[in-house]
């Protein structure tokens, strides 16, 4: 008799994701001990050896709850019992709200700390280009992410949700429902941890999960989560195409470094189609030092007015103390009350924060 359907579905999803890797590559499973990441860890432990892939696990202790160190140690023991090696527990310090980055709330600060620790662990345990990180985001997480993006009004890229592969981050469970991961853990005799923050109404995602998604299902009927996930897939393909065009246009216009030194040609940007123009302006603002999480469509619209509706307005104030100004037909970025800003290292146009749920 083969594995139960939920176990088989998760193993298949992991097998598909691993097929893009090379024998000898290392995969670290990010595991909180919850049902999603625990079911993922078990599937990776089963499938990776057959593909010649090295498989380890890592749990992040945010230090935000009593007993977090003990929980991290317990997860490490489970990862080891599953056969994952190395099995790591890493403690991170999450800045308090209003600390070093005033544009990050507590959820975003925890995510930033977590992903930094995951990347550092992959660098330390693998070789360049061959260390990957698997995350346990499910179809339900994808649906919640789309709703959160819709509420922010932040455009197609945000509504595109999480990609199955983004840089070194892999999300094989995006086709899998949360109920399937719970069923898989039960079938495999794995005791999942229920993070109390998942029920804490202080967190926006928890409210979406516990209140909004059930309300939508009650009003619209079953299949809401699947429909939202399909929407993300469709919008991601569109956003990827538009981002590629915008990246080409940004290079043609001189790129972020030249733009900061000499200014971007305002009329040339203004002549671009709106969808492309807004992406180029976003790249310019990020390169000037605007925090990505704080840069909203309102800020991009204010920049857009400098290149499409110029009537002598002074400047556009942006997050991070950056100002966009039009001078002598060029779009320049300066610090508020200070000299021009230096280029800020960043990834290509449209690269996504590997964020997802908390």
What would CATH call the class of the largest domain?
Alpha Beta
- Assign the CATH architecture of the largest domain: 3-Layer(aba) Sandwich
Total helical segments: 13
Helix content: 40-55%
Global outline: elongated
**Share of residues in strands:** 5-15%
> How many strand units?
10
Quote the distance from N terminus to C terminus. 37 Å
At the fourth CATH level, what is the homologous superfamily of the largest domain?
A: HUPs
What is the C-alpha radius of gyration, as a whole number of Å?
22 Å
Average pLDDT value?
Answer: 85
Biggest beta sheet summary: 6 strands, mixed
Ordered list of secondary-structure elements with their pairings:
Elements: H1 5-18, E1 26-30, H2 35-51, E2 54-61, H3 68-82, E3 87-91, H4 106-125, E4 131-134, H5 139-152, H6 156-159, E5 165-166, E6 169-170, H7 178-188, H8 204-220, H9 224-252, H10 255-262, E7 264-265, H11 266-270, H12 274-287, H13 297-308, E8 316-318, E9 322-327, E10 330-335
Parallel strand pairs: 1-2, 1-4, 2-3, 4-6
Antiparallel strand pairs: 5-6, 7-10, 8-9, 9-10
Helix pairs in contact: 1-2, 1-7, 2-7, 5-8, 5-9, 9-12, 12-13
Short description:
By secondary structure, this protein is of the alpha/beta class. The strands form two sheets. It has a six-stranded mixed β-sheet with strand order 3-2-1-4-6-5, sandwiched between helices.
Account of the 3D structure:
With 358 residues, this protein is an alpha/beta fold. It has 2 domains: 5-136 and 172-220, Rossmann fold (3-Layer(aba) Sandwich), CATH 3.40.50; 240-335, no CATH class. The chain is built from 13 helices and 10 strands. It has helices at 5-18, 35-51, 68-82, 106-125, 139-152, 156-159, 178-188, 204-220, 224-252, 255-262, 266-270, 274-287, 297-308; strands at 26-30, 54-61, 87-91, 131-134, 165-166, 169-170, 264-265, 316-318, 322-327, 330-335. It has a 6-stranded mixed β-sheet with strand order 3-2-1-4-6-5, sandwiched between helices. A 4-stranded antiparallel β-sheet has the order 7-10-9-8. A hairpin with a 2-residue loop joins strand 9 and strand 10. Helix 1 packs across helix 7 (178-188). The longest helix has 29 residues, at 224-252. The chain is elongated. The two termini are 37 Å apart. The relative contact order is 0.12. The model is unreliable at 339-358 (pLDDT under 50).
């Amino acid at each position: 008799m083969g594995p139960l359907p939920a176990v088989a579905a998760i193993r298949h999803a992991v097998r598909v994701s691993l097929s893009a890797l090379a024998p000898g590559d290392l995969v670290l499973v990010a595991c909180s001990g919850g049902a999603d990441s625990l079911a993922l860890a078990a599937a990776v432990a089963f499938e990776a050896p057959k593909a010649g892939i090295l498989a380890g696990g890592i749990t992040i202790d945010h230090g935000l709850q009593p007993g977090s160190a003990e929980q991290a140690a317990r997860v490490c023991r489970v990862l080891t019992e599953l056969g994952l090696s190395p099995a790591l527990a890493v403690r991170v310090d999450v800045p308090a709200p209003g600390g070093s980055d005033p544009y990050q709330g507590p959820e975003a600060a925890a995510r930033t700390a977590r992903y930094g620790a995951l990347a550092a662990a992959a660098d330390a345990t693998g070789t360049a280009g061959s260390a990957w990180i698997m995350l346990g985001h499910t179809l339900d997480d994808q649906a919640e992410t789309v709703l959160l993006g819709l509420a922010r009004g932040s455009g197609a890229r945000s509504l595109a949700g999480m990609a199955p592969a983004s840089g070194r981050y892999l999300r094989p469970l995006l086709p899998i429902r949360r109920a399937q991961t719970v069923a898989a853990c039960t079938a495999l005799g794995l005791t999942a941890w229920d993070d109390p923050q998942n029920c804490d109404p202080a967190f926006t995602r928890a409210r979406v999960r516990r209140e909004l998604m059930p309300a939508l299902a009650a009003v619209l009927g079953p299949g809401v989560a699947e429909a939202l996930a399909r929407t993300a897939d469709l919008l991601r393909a569109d956003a990827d195409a538009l981002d590629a065009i915008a990246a080409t246009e940004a290079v043609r216009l001189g790129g972020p470094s030249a733009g900061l030194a000499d200014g971007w040609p305002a009329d040339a940007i203004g002549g671009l189609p709106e969808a492309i123009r807004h992406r180029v302006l976003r790249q310019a603002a990020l390169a000037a030092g605007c925090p990505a999480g704080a840069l909203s469509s309102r800020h991009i619209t204010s920049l857009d007015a400098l290149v499409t509706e110029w009537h002598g307005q002074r400047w556009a104030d942006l997050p991070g103390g950056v100002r966009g100004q039009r001078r002598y037909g060029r779009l320049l970025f300066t610090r508020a009350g200070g000299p021009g800003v230096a280029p800020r290292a960043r990834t290509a146009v449209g690269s996504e924060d590997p964020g997802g749920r908390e």
